[in-house]
Amino acid sequence: MTEVTSSAFHIHITLNMPRSRTRVQRSHYKPFMELCRKQKWERKRLKQAHSSFNEVRCMESSDTEDIESLDTEDIESLVTKEHTSLMYSAPVFKPLVATDIISNWALKEVNVPKSSVSRLLKALQPVLPDLPLSYKSLLPKPNLHFMQMGDVKYVHLHNWMSSLKKLLLYSYRDMQGTVKYNLIINIDGLLLFKHSPDFKIYPILISVYKLRMRPICAGIYCTEKSKNREMPVSEVFLLDLLNDLKDLRCNNIFQGHLCLKFCGNGIFVCDAPARSCLKQIKSHSGYNSCERCQVKGFYDHLSKHVCFEPVVRQKRSDENFVVKSHPEHHKGTSALTEFGVNMVTGFVLDYMHLSCLGVMKRLMSYWKGVTRLYQAKLPAAASAKFNETIQTLKPYIPKEFNRKMRTLSELSYWKASELRMFLLYAGIVILRYRSVLPKSKYKHFLNFSVAMRFLISTGTDDVEACTRMLVDFCSQACTLYGKGFVSYNVHSLLHLSEDYNLYGSVELVNCFPFESYLGILKSCIHSGFKPLEQVAAHAFQENEPIVYNVRLTGSKHTGDVFKCRDGGIILDNYKDLNVQHFFKAKLHNGCEIDCSKVSECTIRCDDLIAKVEDIVVVNEVSYFIVKPYRYVTNLFQSPMPSKSCGIFKISQLACAFDVVPLSNTVLKLFLMPFKQYFVAIDLIHNV
User: In terms of C-beta distances under 8 Å and separation of at least 24 residues, what long-range contacts does 36-39 make, across chains too?
Assistant: First the structure.
């Protein structure tokens, strides 16, 4: 049932009743039908609704006039004015059917040929007669308009806004009143074919700030037969996106007593070349390229690139950027300025590119010896110990990490997730061996690692301490590795705490989910024939609300226990009760506990660090049965006690069992052996 609510009356439209004449003629709803037809994914449903469109019941409010006193023009103006509420006030969640599940499976399994999907549909036809017979009719056919301008082609996916609204309504379904939200926008390049630069796409990806979700693709532009490495953004390609954002800003989303309001102008999370092109400023290799202060770089002849001083000069502001008070920083005028985007604070310094792929990989390249500063290279024995420790830690890596670290000799192939694991977790143990890294350089690395752990964690109070550690890291780097080490990325670390003060944890605004989605788009390319059309069709179908139905219903909620087991630990308190035993449970932050694996069974609840021996459900309440560790101490004291940043030195399990309710705030730990004890580190990144 679809409902329109106004201050004067309520209109209820029932679609599945016998055909009959009503007090309000169907011709009065012609504007509403025309609005709905504009959305292609609604067309089939509207045809079915038109054949059974039967009854309109009008309920008079206690303090308003009767609907019969309204003429046709009044009703048309009311429907036009309230069309946003009318179109999105329907139930946002419907029961899943087999077609929805198979459609979502066919989209995710991009390596399955379409002919195999069609054969599967035909095989299931006797059991599920409602299924289509072909892959072509399983998913909605996108009706896309491609804009060609020279070597650049652009397509705008018009269904991204409907998917966004459906996701918002589902996420905030339990709230009332006005809820404000902001959007995270990412634009990054993706080379479609490994050995050919002819085709490179730049998807425009959208997600909601502080909402964990898969990104939504709003548009894609593609360069053909162009070897220009600069992102070919123009005002024409940004025009459709900016118009959609203006529409979201002007039209709120309503459902019942809930009003969703788009506040802000969007948060742009991109790498340095993309930010340079979008903002029309000097590239990261320029002398005046720093986006947050007016420091001027210098050319270092030893490292052969532009370097910066490890200090913060006069800071830039949004107002000074608009008037171009520092003209050496600008290349032109960005189209985003006219839209009202904050050109300094609205562009986040993404820690994936900055800290992981930038600074951490730069440090490791110095240790490997690929730079001209050969005195920073690790000896052969240290490199061998480094690689040996990595192999030792592999069985202890939890499943929350998609990749396992490779050796130092394969550094050029390391991905951002591997570098993040080394920076936040494994490097703290691997580099602690004196045979790997000298004590002075290990303390220097700890400044960087501990500061990043605080900036990624939520609820960090002492941001000034993080800033001091990053300042010490940059200044000491000049002494340990030379002035050429302080590149654009290293200098930008000094401004990372500014983003924390604006948006909270840097884990909330980063490129990791967008990079994962780019991999999905790349995997849907099956040939070199019309690659943009293949990617656009897949992205359009991914945006469809039917896909989000499957994602939302299939997700596990906090406190889920699964994989039942026969037998287990029975404590004296629960002997007379009905106890169910399980292998696995899911925590509030998405981490999974598996009591059958050594890498998945270490948890922390406040000051208690323990090993999970069993997972039980008693009277519909879930509990962990654990064995606590007796000795829990600090691993290091400088730059601050390790316990304060979630790093513990533990040893010796207790003999007695303890019980921890799953409803408590429980954190999963990364357990790593070191000499005669273990090092346990809180998992703080999003999974």
Answer: 36/87, 39/158, 39/159, 39/162
Extended strands (E) in 430-515: none
d(CA 598, CA 611): 9
Q: Among 446, 436, 458, 400, which Cα is nearest to 670's?
A: 400
Q: Provide the residue count of the chain.
A: 687
Write out the E strands in 324-409.
347-349
What tokens were used for 58?
């009008």
> Tokens standing for 567?
């037998």
- Residue 626 bridge partners (DSSP): 612, 658
Asked if residue 147 lies in contact with residue 227, where contact means CB atoms within 8 angstroms, the answer is no
Cβ–Cβ under 8 Å, residues 653 and 590: no
Q: How far is CA 536 from CA 105, 158, 191, 197, 290, in A?
A: 18, 11, 15, 19, 35
**Chain center to CA of 553:** 19
**CA atoms of 452 and 200, how far apart (whole Å):** 33
Around 408, how many Cα atoms within 13 Å sit in the side-chain half-sphere? Answer: 28
Distance CA 146, CA 161 (A): 19
pTM of the model: 0.82
CA atoms within 13 A on the CB side of 34: 8
Two structure tokens written together for 32: 């509403």
Which residues make beta-bridge pairs with 179?
260
User: For the segment 370-426, what is each residue's pLDDT rounded down to a tens digit?
Assistant: 776 667 889 999 999 999 999 999 999 999 998 999 999 999 999 999 999 999 999
pLDDT grade for 29, boundaries at 50, 70 and 90: very low
Q: Where are the beta strands (DSSP E) in 182-313?
A: 183-187, 190-193, 196-208, 216-224, 253-255, 258-262, 267-270, 298-300, 305-307
Q: How many Å apart are CA 668 and CA 175, to the nearest integer?
A: 30
- Distance between CA atoms of 41 and 140, rounded to whole angstroms? 7
If you write DSSP's letter for every residue of 76-138 in order, what string do you get? HHHHHHTHHHHHH-S-S-----HHHHHHHHHHH-TTS-HHHHHHHHHHHTTT-TTS-SSGGGT
CB 541 within 8 A of CB 140: yes
Q: How confident is the model at residue 217 (pLDDT cuts 50, 70, 90)?
A: very high
Q: 159, 134, 188: which is closest to 39 by C-alpha? A: 159
- Average the pLDDT over each of 177-186, 359-368, 380-389, 519-528 and give the range with the smallest value: 519-528
Distance CA 183, CA 172 (A): 15
Query: Is residue 616 within a helix (H) or strand (E), and if so which, with residue range?
Result: strand 608-618
Q: CA-CA distance, 380 to 340, in Å (whole number)?
A: 55
177 phi-psi bin (left φ>0, alpha ψ -120 to 50, beta other): left
301-339 b/e with 16+ CB inside 10 Å = b? eebeebbbbbebeeebeeebbbeeeeeebbeeebbbeeb
Instruction: Find the Cα–Cα–Cα–Cα dihedral 532, 535, 539, 542, rounded to 10°.
Output: 160
pLDDT of residue 552: 43
